[in-house]
Amino acid sequence: MNDRRCRIGRWMALFIGLGLLSGCQTLSAPAPTSAAGGNALPAACRWPAGSADPLERLRATREALESQGYTILDTDATLGLVSAERKTAQPGLGAVESPFGRTGFWGGFGLGGRNGYSLGVFQNFGGGYNTDPVQIERVSVVTPEQTTLVDRDSVVVDYNGYLIDARSYNQPSFCQQLRQEIDTRLNRAAGEATP
Amino acid sequence: MNHRKMPALRRRTASRSRPWRVACLGLLIGMLSLAGCAVAPQPQPRSIAVEATADATLKATLAMLAERGFVIRHADGDLGQIDAVLASRSGYEVHAQVTSGGERPPGLVIQNGDTFLTLSGLRGGQPLDALELDPLFIDVQNRLGLLP
Hints:
heterodimer; A: alpha+beta; six-stranded antiparallel beta sheet; 23% strand; elongated; B: alpha+beta; seven-stranded mixed beta sheet; 7 strands; 43% helix; 28% strand
C-alpha cells in the first residue's frame, strides 16, 4: 500500500516537472524567423507616421537620437530609415576575475554565439588600461509606409571580445521617449515655419 | 679510415629519416584537412519572384524585418538592399536584395513575376536554411497581398 502510494507520488512529480518544463518552452518568445515571430514589437514602438514632411521627420528622428548619445550610421530617405548605435562603458561589470575564467553570475562558458559579432571593435580599448565591458545598443527607426517602427537590441562585450550579454532591447519606455522627442522637434519646426 | 666509414653512416641516417618524412607528411595532410573544416560557411541565398514593383517589395521586406524585431543596419532604396541584425544568444544577420528583371538570382524557388527578392542570412555563424527563410518570404507576400 505504502509502496504503491510512493510510486504514484513519484509519477505525479515527474508529470508536474515535465509540465513545468514544457510550460517554460511555450512561454519563451518565438524565434524571429519563425511564422509566429511577426509580432515582436511592443505597441509603444510603432506609431502612425502622421502627415509631416518625410524629410523633416527624418531630420527630427536623427536629432532626437543624437541628443540621446547615439551615433548615426546610416540614413535613407526613400525608405525612411535612420540607423544608429551607442556604446556605453559598463564599469565594474568585468570585475569577476578568477583563476578558472569567468564563471558564475554572468553565465560562465555556456554563453555561446559570439560568431555573429565583430570582435575587433574594442581593440583600441585593450592594453590593460581600460578593461571595462562595453554595451552596444543598436537602434533603427524605419517608416516604410504609414507606420514608424523602432527596433533596438543590446550587446554587452568584454574588452577582449567576450560576449557577456546579447538581447533584443525593445523597451516601451525608450520608444515613448523617442516618439516624444521626435514630435517636439517636428512641432518646433512647424511652429517656426508658420509665422 | 674516416673516408671508408662515411657511406655506411649516410645510409643509416637515410633509412632512419624515412619514417620521419612519412610522419611529417601525415601531419601536414592532417593539418590541411583540419584547416579545411575551419572555413567559415557561406550564407545560402534563396529567392522568389513576385508580381509587384521593386519599390513596394523592398518596403514590404523592410516592414517585415522591422516588425520581427530586426535592427536595420543599412538600407538603400536605390540599390534595393537591406542589412539587418538581431542580437540574441546566437546572433542573426539577414541580407535582402530586390532586383527587377535582369538575371535570375541564385536559389530561385518561386517564379510569379519579374521582381526578384533574395534573402540570405546567418544565425550564430551558420547559414539560415529554407526552414527559417521561408516564413519571411510568406510574410512579405502577405504584406504585398499576393497570397489568398
